[in-house]
Amino acid sequence: MAGSYDDRDGKIWMDGKLVEWRDAKVHVLTHAMHYASSVFEGERCYNGKIFKSREHSERLHFSAGELDFEIPYTVDEIEAAKQQVLTENGLTDAYVRAVAWRGAGEDMGVASLRNPVHLAIAAWEWGNYYGDAKMKGAKIDIAKWKRPSPETIPVHAKAAGLYMICTTSKHAAEAKGCSDALFMDYRGYVAECTGANIFFVKDGEVHTPKADVFLNGITRQTVIGMLKDKGVTVHERVIMPEELEGFEQCWLTGTAAEVTPVGQIADYNFEVGALCREISEDYEKLVRA
């Protein structure tokens, strides 16, 4: 599938029914457009099965609750709708996007309790998120923005507003010829990239930032479990920026990113080493099992 995302063939599930792709529209005074009252999930389907589908649907409900609204569809109904979208569009390997938001209604200020909540699900074919970086290792910039304190925003929700600094940081990174940008958090600790969690290797052990101010990704949790099953020591801890120089390998994890090796962060270089390749291959086998 190619072309603009608003001009494609196919069907999108919207508020309980399938609609033509080009007709899946919302009003310009939709609350989410003005106040970011929107949550979403990104999921991948492999060989006709969405990896950890139910966990994603459950997290969508959790995220909505963090933004003080309730999705008017159960987890089971969301699961059925995702399968309906895949079947209707003839997809077996695809990216699936579920999004819930406060729509247009009686309220058009910050408060929006009287506005209806909507849900839509779309799916499309999508290759490697970082292109050929999957093989060569991504080149990463360091963002000027920082991940905020959990006292300022619901950091564990997958909410649209949290991605504002991700968009600007990724644009700045791409302008420098990089694939992505690495955030520090408000304390100055290494955090995550714009749409992926990050892992490092040193002396055969794995180090990853503690997920206390950013989304604890489903892929992140999966990879940590895989590493521990292999007997690899995993440290979830505070990582200081100056430690980057001492790490030997690095990779990113995320539903879109899957497991992508990193070859460079700013002036620091990393080997696309054996453990990185092994966990990437094992993840590929797992999701297609």
Please provide a written account of the structure.
By secondary structure, the chain is an alpha+beta fold. It is 26% helix and 30% strand. The protein contains seven helices and 15 strands. The strands form two sheets. Strands 7, 8, 9, 10, 11, 12, 13, 14 and 15 form a nine-stranded mixed sheet that branches. It is globular and about 55 Å long. 39% of the residues are buried. The model has no long low-confidence stretch (mean pLDDT 96).
Highlighted features:
alpha+beta; D-amino Acid Aminotransferase, Chain A, domain 1; 2 domains; D-amino Acid Aminotransferase, Chain A, domain 2; 6-stranded antiparallel β-sheet; 289 residues
Care to give the gist of this entry?
The chain has seven helices and 15 strands. With 289 residues, the protein is α+β, with helices and mostly antiparallel strands. It folds into two domains: 11-124, D-amino Acid Aminotransferase, Chain A, domain 1 (2-Layer Sandwich); 133-287, D-amino Acid Aminotransferase, subunit A, domain 2 (D-amino Acid Aminotransferase, Chain A, domain 2), CATH 3.20.10.
